[in-house]
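Office hours follow-up: a student asked to see two folded examples consecutively, so here they are.
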Amino acid sequence: MTINLNGRTRLYPLLGDPIIYARSPDWLSKHMAKRGMNCISLPMEVPEGKLKVAMDGLAVTGNVDGLSLTMPHKITGVDYCATLSEVSRMLGVVSAIRRNKDGSWHGHTTDGDAFVKAQIDRGAKVEGAKVLVLGAGGAGSAVVISMLENGAGEVAVYDLDRNRAQRIVDLLKDKAGDRVRVAETNDPTGFDIVSNATSMGMADDDPIPIDPDKLDASMFVGDVVAGHGETKIIKAAKAAGCRTADGDDMVVAVLDVMCDFLEEAWT
């Protein structure tokens, strides 16, 4: 597959800070070319507090069809979207943005869909599974929703801030009922799938977000942390005989999710 840049090439930048660990622009550009899309993604280092400047410029750049957001812009990015998907509206976060027909922005969060796709692609059986999700921030909440949408039998949410975990459980109670609950501890015992949706693993001295001695080979362990090599939780899971999907697997999975999201605007 060859990426051909020309005057008709559509741009899909990634905005974040830090951006030096980002691998998705290269992967997404190649994947777009493979799908026959004349588009490229490129990294843009936009510091916290400067998103408005960047968004104002991109809004008047006619060949920018959309963009993706990473830390620290997933929450503030909502302010620039005229319309939002149901998930983004519920959570107050966006990770992918595309043009509406009137030129305004439509926001969605792809984190949950991409994470769960990565688990399934690597062999996880989500249907009917008991799932422990560690972290109830933007990514974690999206993972909870996607796990439920993909048929998980039970999703327990653990966060050091119990109120944060309770918030996503309360938001989903009407739809999911007893299938979603707050986990009182981070003990993975008895769960089929353990999903780390915290940032633990981005720094070398980060602790493992669970007790690794409580992992067993029947569990599937996933991690959202990408671009930092094999994280401690993934190493521990492999040592315990677990099947795994790491953050780089999620980045691969998000390629189709992102492309589908963009192409929806053209059909």
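And the second, which I mentioned at the end of office hours:
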Amino acid sequence: MHEAITVGSSNVDLGDSLREHVREQVSSMADKYLQHLTRAAVHFNHEGVDFRCSVNVQVGSLPLMAGEALAKDAYQAFNQALEKVAKQLRRTKRAVREDKAQRIDKQVPFG
């Protein structure tokens, strides 16, 4: 699944440990929520002394989900942006689960 995840930067030297951290976290988030990661792109750049991280995730046939964060540390910026995407996935999973039709014969009568 790691081949579906791209990690890039404009003007930041990304180390192997950051790239691996990104790939592991995105994979585990996708597995946790909907398990069908189509593609993901993570991009870092500098804004003054801070790091900006953009995370775009495509899961199955759902619309692209995106999160962006600005922080003093690249790991912190990534974690904040990923949490925004995870929140969108949680809400989507809940909506998909609640859209299922309910069986009439399984309803419990009010007592």
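Two things to take away from it. The first helix runs from residue 16 to 33. DSSP finds two helices and four strands in the chain.
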